[in-house]
Amino acid sequence: MEIGIFSGGSLPMWRQHFGPGCRVIGVDIEPACRAYAEDGVDIVIGDQADAGFWADTLPNLPPLNVVIDDGGHKAHQQIASFESIFPTMAPGGVYLCEDLHHRENGFVQYILALGQHLNACQIARNPTPPHSTSPTSGPAKWIASIHFYPFMVVIQRTHVPPESWESEKHGTEWEPFLK
Ligand SMILES: C[S@@+](CC[C@H](N)C(=O)[O-])C[C@H]1O[C@@H](n2cnc3c(N)ncnc32)[C@H](O)[C@@H]1O
To answer: Mind listing the pLDDT tens digit for each residue in 4-27?
Structure first.
């Protein structure tokens, strides 16, 4: 799926890149973009910032393997699309948001905050062996990895969302006299 069609140039490019078995779904707010529908390319018209649009649209589509957000480029639009689409993607799916300019870019700040969930932990020394636990919640529980590139973020969806991330301590024993 590509959010943002404009004059339609990237839709055949994605078909060529991913091969003849690929089905491309273009999404745009502009109804005239329906003109770019063709064999293997479906067009859906709607506002990417509207969670209701995604709730109506996504159940009619197969789980998405790749999503590219090149739509309105406003952080609230990018966040709304990500929160609706990402948990419904195919396991291992890749979500890409492009044109992320400026130091305090709102979508980058949002993804950085999600990334902080991956590091949150409570360290328990009892029961033994000690382990760190981080309960998962919200979109963060679907994240396998986050990749930052110049002007672009790529987020990969996990296969099975865990209830928590657990890291059991192996190796050197924790001596009781070491606080
Ligand atoms: C940068 S252009 C897309 C260019 C295209 N991906 C390409 O590479 O040729 C941005 C497109 O996003 C669409 N757009 C803007 N706001 C939108 C919204 N809220 N929801 C869906 N599409 C939107 C615009 O109508 C425009 O066609």
So the answer is: 999 999 999 999 999 989 999 999
Range of the domain at 147: 47-168
What's at 151, amino acid-wise?
A: F
Whether 122 is covered by a domain: the verdict is yes
Q: Find the angle CA(69)-CA(148)-CA(3) to the nearest 5 degrees.
A: 5
pTM of the predicted model as reported, rounded to 2 decimal places: 0.89
Residue 164 resides in a domain: yes
* pLDDT tens-place string over residues 87-130: 999 999 999 999 999 989 999 999 999 888 777 666 666 666 66
Residue 155 to residue 170: CA distance in whole angstroms? 29
Domain presence at residue 132: yes
CATH number of residue 76's parent domain? 3.40.50.150
Is the CB of residue 38 below 6 angstroms from any atom belonging to ligand 1? no
CA distances from residue 104 to 3, 68, 148 in whole angstroms, order as listed: 23, 21, 14
Is the pLDDT score of 40 beyond 90?
yes
Total domain count, the chain: 1
The average confidence (pLDDT) of the chain is 89
C-beta atoms surrounding 167 within 10 Å: 12
Substitution candidate for ligand 1 out of 48, 76, 85, 96 with most atoms within 8 A of CB? 48
Q: Is residue 144 part of a domain?
A: yes
Ligand 1 centre from 176 Cα, in Å? 60
